[in-house]
Amino acid sequence: MQKPFNLFAAVENIYTPRQRYVLLVASLLGLAVLMLLGLAQYLTAFLAAGILFVVFRPWWVALVHKRRWNARLVTIGILLITVVVLVIPFYSLSSLLLDRLIAFAQNPDQIMGVVHKVEKATGFKIAEQLNVRQLLLQAGAKVSGWLPTLASSALNFLVIVGLMLFTMYYMFMQETYFLLGLHRYLPFRNETLEDLGESLKNNVNANVLGQVVVALVQSILTGLTLWIFGVPDALFWGVVAFFMAFLPVLGTPLVWGPAALYQFSQGNNGQAIGILLVGFIVIINVDNVLRIMLAKRMGDIHPLVTLVGLVLGVEIFGLIGLVVGPLLVSYFLVLMEVFRRENRTHQQALAAAEKEVVRPPLAADPASEG
Q1: Are the beta carbons of 184 and 323 closer than 8 angstroms?
Q2: Are residues 90 and 197 part of one domain?
Q3: Domain range for residue 92?
Q4: 52 part of a folded domain
Q5: Same domain for 197 and 173
Q6: Transmembrane residues, as ranges (predicted)?
Q7: Is residue 149 included in any domain, yes or no?
Q8: Are 266 and 321 within one domain?
Q9: Could you give the C-alpha distances from 8 to 4, 11, 12, 290, in angstroms and in order?
Q10: 204 & 336 share domain
Q11: What is the SS3 assignment for 254?
């Protein structure tokens, strides 16, 4: 049977194999950039799904691989835990914080009253009303930028949460294909992939699990301290302390410090001194002790990496940048170490090859000549 005539076989391609290879890589990169631009506003959903995959994977391995539980039921249980324990409380606490900041920005009379009383007590001019209002507006806008899903429509928030849960479902249900795909398509050696995976696990443990524990403990201690010493809205300021605790330098002193000033302005000097004593002796020391203990147990991350990563990540990714930022810095350091290792191996190979080239020929054995 005669084969059909192939029109394209008779046409000469103008590109060399090398040029076709370069154009193929450029096309892949261009399509990847277009996809990232199209999904930019939903990027936090995929990042959060990857982080939660790392957090819940030990549970998944223990229940599915070791105890042979049904994979679909375990996955649905993980998704329910995510919604009940993480999504709903986070949405509620963030909404409370954002609404209160907006209310303070629109009606700063209460804060101005405290500022004037502090000025009378200290004799220093702190700020004009316009400056205080401007600072509050800037704080509200900054928090809105950190929480874009809450500052935008509820529909956008639901879409992001839905994408996150949908991605998590398929990452767990197709775990083997997902991990094999990473090894197949990422341009790294297996040793490098292991280093990157270890860095990811350490960052997630230190900056998600560990940091949440530290922030929760500090939040509870701050809220109880303010409630005991008679500061109004102690519950709200405890919620604020939870978010402030993620900042590695300032943290909860941004909450209980102004609370002590408020009590001084009201003439409650004993309560103000009590807040300062508890803050400096208990809250700060609990923070330091917990950070050291959890850093050793959950992930050995240098504090400078965490600090630079937080500043970088929150500015780019919002609140999810608390994890993504330190991860980017850690990955940069890991890849620098990989580059150093690969470059040293290459130089050793070149040196060995040069020795083989310049090695003199072996002298003939006189016995064999005889």
Answers
A1: no
A2: no
A3: 41-185
A4: yes
A5: no
A6: 21-39, 45-64, 71-91, 154-172, 208-229, 235-261, 273-294, 306-334
A7: yes
A8: yes
A9: 12, 5, 8, 69
A10: yes
A11: helix
- Give per-residue pLDDT as tens, 343-356: 887 788 888 887 77
HSE-up (13 A, CA, CB side) for residue 165: 17
Q: Does residue 202 sit within a domain?
A: yes
Tokens of 85: 């324990």
Residue 137 shares a structural domain with residue 198:
no
pTM more than 0.85: no
- Quick check: is 369 in a domain? no
For 245, the enclosing helix (H) or strand (E) is: none
Distance between CA atoms of 53 and 174, rounded to whole angstroms? Answer: 12
The length of the chain in residues reads 370
Beta strands in the chain (DSSP E): none
3-state secondary structure of 306: helix
Range 113-146 burial, b when 16+ CB lie within 10 A, else e: ebbebbeeeeeeeeeeeeebbeebbeebeebbeb
Distance CA(305)–CA(323), nearest Å, equals: 11
- Joined together, the tokens standing for residue 226 give 């303010």
- pLDDT of 236 strictly over 60: yes
Say what angle helices 71-81 and 43-60 make with each other, to 10 degrees.
Answer: 120
144-182 per-position pLDDT tens digit: 555 544 445 567 778 888 898 999 999 999 988 888 887
Cα–Cα–Cα angle for 186, 187, 190, nearest 5°? 80
